[in-house]
């Protein structure tokens, strides 16, 4: 009688969504802004959408390349903002405060990275008017952001 060997079958491996890795450009939605960090849910890696939940963390030192000590997280991002960022590194977090075992450190320090879409307090999609400001087309109100330079 032939020896029965256990077999392992991998099902649905190809159907898995994109997974962020160091160097990947991602699109993420900001969920929470604190004094030194902003948390975001990663929605896309490159042009592919993700199928599982990946949490990204943008640290104060990774917001921009210059005057890092002067970055005010609450002026750079707001919850709901859509940002383009690059994955700096992956961390299996020991901090249980994030409620997630893994997080990706994200950077918006290059000109083409930062907020790509944001809604004003009036609920309108804002228009970037400089690297640091977006304006509501309805009310004309200007809000601070770390704006991504589009088309670069």
Automatic annotation (TrEMBL):
Cytoplasm keyword on record: yes
InterPro entries in alphabetical order: Csl4, EXOSC1_C, NA-bd_OB-fold
GO biological process: RNA processing
Cited Pfam families: EXOSC1
All residue ranges annotated as the Exosome complex component CSL4 C-terminal domain in the record: 49-89
Source superkingdom: Eukaryota
Entry protein name: Exosome complex component CSL4 C-terminal domain-containing protein
One Gene Ontology term, aspect cellular component: cytoplasm
Protein location: Nucleus, Nucleolus
Major subcellular site: nucleus
Keywords attached to this entry: Cytoplasm, Exosome
GO MF term list: RNA binding
